[in-house]
Design a protein that fits this description.
The complex is a heterodimer. Chain A has two domains: 3-123, no CATH class; 161-278, Immunoglobulin-like, CATH 2.60.40. Chain A contains six helices and ten strands. Helices cover 42% and strands 24% of the residues of chain A. In chain A, helix 1 (3-20) packs antiparallel against helix 4 (90-109) and helix 2 (25-49) packs across helix 3. By secondary structure, chain B is mainly alpha-helical. Chain B has helices at 3-6, 40-64, 69-92, 98-119, 127-142, 160-172, 176-203, 206-217, 231-250, 255-273, 277-304, 317-339, 344-364, 380-407, 413-422, 425-430, 437-462, 466-469, 478-495, 498-501, 517-530, 539-549, 574-583, 618-622, 646-656; strands spanning 534-536, 552-553, 587-591, 630-635, 639-644. Chain B has a five-stranded mixed beta sheet, covered by helices on one side. In chain B, helix 6 crosses helix 7 and helix 8 packs antiparallel against helix 17 (437-462). The longest helix of chain B has 28 residues, at 176-203. Chain B is globular and about 85 Å long. The chains are: A alpha+beta, B mainly alpha. Chains A and B meet through helix 2, helix 3, helix 4, helix 5 and strand 1 of A and helix 2, helix 4, helix 5, helix 6 and helix 7 of B. Strand 1 (161-166) of chain A pairs antiparallel with strand 4 (630-635) of chain B, so a sheet runs across the interface.
Chain lengths: 279, 657
């Protein structure tokens, strides 16, 4: 094994270790992924093309990328064969293993055939590599800045809307709420605003039972609270509305509308459930 | 031009359109090295590319703000045209090094990938993107491949894209979407490089290879369709590499190297097989036809008394390589089809048989076909160029065929076969008029353009143009650049419709602009409260419920007419009620915007829609608040989520009978 093989092997081990840690994403994108892909790809290229014959052969530059991408497929196949899921530990280990196996196979085509340099490393002299490298880096930066600027130009529209949901479990299971005739029924609901805050501590609640307006007995609503960041809504208000069940047994449709004042849209925000009244 | 000049086994630089014997320009330092590509004008090319990207961003902003289509289309092309033309000029220049051309091809790839990336940089927007993004998320969630997918059920059996995306996401820590973007960007660049290598291998010139890559990038699918987060983009890149590596292997004298290249081609073919069904079919078609051509030509020539072997590679390994790769691909495809992806045949057969049937019925009844660009916002000038582009490509091919008619004996069979396969493009354009065939026709262009690119590169590099020679020196490239501009604009116009190409304000009835944060939060809320349930909804809301909530959306069809739930003023049929009960579709999600306007695409529930071309009457939707078998458990300003009581529904409709 040559010193270069040792160095590349160590690079793969470090890349796998960094991939296993919760490292900074740009570091993993710019270092870990290229190392694992290109070491595997370069090794596969040596196996395919053998010793370097032509400094200007574009395959020496292009094949490592292509075969590196294909080596990721090999890692997936390896995990499938071993019946291991594509988990956060298994993937870096499998990718690193594929890269190492290919790297260790390179002497079969490279060293034995008398390869002294390695593709990507011996294309030109060190001095003559600097200028094009800087040029490419500058081009990437300029284009990257342009793409970032173009993306930043896009207006970010904030939609404002309100969401009303019923919290009782029966309706979610497709079952009617059950109550005794004339008994008290409590309906639990949650109001969520998106793109604007709820400010009304006591939103207007309207009720109808069997398509006829009904009067609620009690209405309790917690003050609106700001939702935690990432919850997807701006503020949340939880409430309960109590009403008397009809006296006659049977199935009734109960419709509830909740309308906070000061909302940018008009609603009404409705929920309808089925109430089964038993004697 | 003869094969010895343009198609020799060892690629050589051609420095002039018509003076092939002229020596290649001497690079400034290190002859043939990768380093001597930089000249002053590179700065101009890169800055033009950057300015082009910024103008594309501006055009998208104008589109979102609802400005006139003429304005944002003109802004888009004011950015893209100079960027592509300057890179194209560098690619096609008579002078230049192979490295310089390769960098120019890379720059072309970056410039042409930008419009799609900027179209929706942070989340899926195209129909297929929702499906692939969900698939990748599911793979990342539990590490298993082959998850059922209700948007495109067949992608369950082709896990190449989702598997690769999951691996990249795991290695980098990127989100599934960003990892997918990275994979597709790499695939886009790899596809162009493959075309470069293929052009150089088959035509024997780096300039021809670079021009082939440029022409390939003009294909209507290249800028938007093949750069979306879906399996085609990755599979097409692998397809092109199979063609390129096979060409290299057949021209390689060293046995070990040839074996290596053949193995690499087989590996790419297997990658394509596990990634995309249609690409596999086209790959097999291309490989088989070319292998047959390579095998049959010497035999036919011998029978005709010609000395055919002078035009084939010295050994007969050409046939061996083509057949090895064809047989390996066929074996891999057959094994995958038999043991993993058996439903593929049922998935694809309606498209093949249906589109041919529709074309033949159009011959007798023209009204049964599609109206091209019917509801498009495309400006008239772009529509005109869209119609002109195939004609221009046809003329280019005609010119090539006329020249080839005199020289075909000088060329290898594989190049001729690939060029002939490129001509599939012209009959495929006819299928655009058949509703079922249009999708297949669009998808075929990524493959047929391989042949067109080779033929086009041959025409540009190898044919003499006396009329061009009469043009003063500095303007000599003008006709080529004008043709490039026409085909670029026309083909991009032929690829995707306005809502796919440009972002815009909310518009009901498109895959891309019917999306809303409102629907996304409903999906997320439902997923949190009831999990990945089965749901009946329209085709636009289904995209977001499936992608963001993991729901299984019903696929409406004549046999499963779920539209009856919302498109009729009475209860659904007992047959549908029975099917809903047995298949457990417990939820119904309705977007009331379908009552405000007819869908832009013409329907809300697919081809069998009862109210195609019309908005749904609001009373049909409000009726759901008054039936006993549905409870509205969640509502927003525009969306209503109903929990269905399916046994009660079945009882109700049976009682009514």
């Amino acid at each position: 094994m040559t010193a270069r093989l040792h160095a590349l092997g160590r690079l793969v081990v470090v890349a796998v270790a960094v991939a296993l840690m919760p490292a900074w994403v740009p570091l993993r994108v710019l270092i870990v992924l290229p190392v694992l892909v290109l070491v595997a790809g370069w090794s596969a290229t040596v196996l395919v093309l053998g010793p370097r014959r032509n400094h200007d052969d574009p395959l020496r530059v292009l094949l490592p990328v292509l075969l590196g991408v294909l080596s990721l497929f090999l890692a997936v196949i390896m995990l499938l064969t071993l019946r291991v899921g594509l988990g956060p530990v298994a993937v870096p280990v499998a990718t690193g293993t594929v890269a190492m196996v290919l790297l260790l196979a390179t002497p079969w085509r490279g060293v034995k055939a008398g390869v002294r340099g390695y593709p990507l490393m011996g294309l030109a002299s060190y001095r003559s590599r600097i200028r094009p490298a800087l040029t490419v880096a500058a081009a990437v930066l300029v284009l990257g800045a342009a793409v970032t600027g173009a993306a930043a130009m896009q207006p970010q529209a904030v939609e404002q809307y309100t969401q009303l949901s019923i919290d009782d479990t029966e309706p979610h299971r497709g079952l009617p709420l059950t109550a005794r005739s004339g008994g008290r029924v409590a309906l639990h609901w949650t109001l969520r605003s998106h793109g604007y805050p709820l400010t009304d501590p006591a939103p207007a609640v309207q009720l109808s039972i069997g398509d006829l307006p009904a009067t609620w007995l009690n209405m309790g609503a917690n003050p609106p609270t700001a939702s935690p960041v990432g919850a997807g809504s701006t503020s949340t208000q939880v409430g309960e509305t109590g009403f008397a069940a009809p006296a006659r047994p049977g199935l009734y449709r109960v419709q509830i509308s909740v309308a906070p004042t000061g909302t940018p849209d008009t609603g009404p925000w409705l929920a309808t459930i089925v109430l089964q009244v038993v004697s | 031009m003869t094969r010895a000049e343009l198609g020799s086994a060892a690629p050589q630089e051609i420095s002039s359109l018509d003076q092939y014997s002229a020596p290649a320009p001497r690079p400034r330092s290190g002859s043939g090295s990768w380093t001597c590509f930089w000249t002053q004008s590179w700065a101009t090319t890169i800055l033009a590319a950057a300015a082009g990207v910024l103008l594309v961003g501006l055009s998208y902003r104008l589109s979102v703000e609802g400005r006139p289509a003429d304005l944002y289309y003109a802004t888009f092309w004011a950015g893209m045209l100079p960027a592509v033309l300057l890179v194209g000029r560098r690619i096609a220049a008579r002078e230049g090094t192979r490295a310089g051309r390769l960098w120019a091809v890379a720059l072309l790839g970056a410039v042409t990938a930008a419009p799609k990336y900027l179209r929706n940089p942070y989340a899926p927007s195209y129909h297929d993107e929702y499906a692939h993004w969900r698939e990748a998320i599911d793979v990342l969630a539990d590490g298993r491949l082959f998850h059922p997918n209700s948007l495109i059920p067949i992608i369950q059996f082709f896990p190449g894209t989702s598997g690769l995306t999951a691996v990249v996401a795991r290695l980098t820590g990127l989100s599934a979407w960003s990892a997918g973007m990275l994979v597709l960007f790499a695939a886009h660049l790899l596809a162009l490089f493959a075309m470069f290598v293929a052009g150089e291998a088959y035509l024997g010139s780096a300039r021809a290879g670079a021009i082939a890559a440029l022409i390939y990038e003009l294909n209507p699918s290249a800028m938007y369709f093949d750069t979306q987060f879906a399996y085609e983009g990755l599979a097409v890149a692998l397809f092109l590499w199979v063609i390129a590596l096979t060409g290299l292997a057949t021209r390689e004298d060293n046995r070990r190297r040839r074996t290596g290249l053949t193995a690499a081609a087989v590996l790419c073919a297997v990658g394509s097989v596990v990634t995309h069904h249609l690409t596999t079919i086209f790959l097999l078609l291309f490989l088989f036809c070319t292998a047959v051509a390579v095998t049959a030509r010497p035999w036919l020539s011998r029978r005709a008394g010609h000395d055919a072997f002078r035009i084939e590679p010295p050994c007969d390994h050409s046939r061996q390589v083509w057949w090895t790769i064809t047989a390996s691909t066929a074996a891999a495809a057959a094994a995958w089809l038999l043991y993993v992806a058996r439903p593929t045949i049922n998935y694809l057969s309606p498209y093949f048989s249906g589109s041919v049937g529709q074309l033949s019925s159009m011959a007798t009844d023209p009204a049964s076909g599609r109206t091209m660009l019917a509801t498009s916002a495309q400006p008239l000038w772009e529509r005109g160029l869209t119609a002109l582009a195939p004609l221009l490509v046809g003329l280019l091919c005609l010119r090539g065929l006329l020249v080839l008619r005199r020289q075909w004996r000088e060329w290898n069979s594989d190049v001729l076969a690939l060029m002939a396969l490129g001509l599939i493009y012209f009959p495929s354009v006819l299928f655009l008029f058949a509703p079922l065939g249009a999708e297949g026709a669009r998808r075929s262009w990524a493959f047929s353009y391989v042949g067109l690119a080779l033929l086009g590169a041959y025409v540009v590099v190898g044919c003499s143009w006396p009329a061009v020679k009469r043009i003063p020196g500095r303007w000599r490239s003008a006709p080529g650049l004008v043709a490039l501009a026409v085909v670029l604009i026309g083909n991009v116009g032929a690829g995707m419709n306005d809502p796919y190409r440009f972002p815009g304000p909310f518009r009901w009835g498109t895959d891309t602009t019917s999306t809303s944060a409102e629907a996304r939060t409903v999906a997320v809320r439902m997923a949190a409260e009831v999990g990945p349930v089965r749901v009946v909804t329209d085709r636009y809301t289904a995209l977001q419920l499936t992608a963001y909530g993991g729901m299984h959306a019903a696929a409406p069809s004549a046999g499963f007419p779920v539209w009856e739930l919302v498109q009729k003023g009475n209860d659904p049929s007992s047959a549908l009620a029975g099917m809903l009960v047995s298949s457990d579709y417990n939820y119904l999600v309705v977007d009331v915007r379908m009552a405000q306007k007819a869908a832009f695409n013409g329907d809300d529930y697919g081809p069998g829609d009862l109210l195609a071309g019309r908005p749904t009457p609001l009373e049909y939707l409000d009726r759901l608040d008054h039936v006993r078998w549905a409870s509205r458990i969640l509502s927003t300003d525009h969306l209503r989520v109903y929990r269905l009581n399916l046994p009660l529904l079945a009882d109700t409709v049976q009682g009514a009978r």
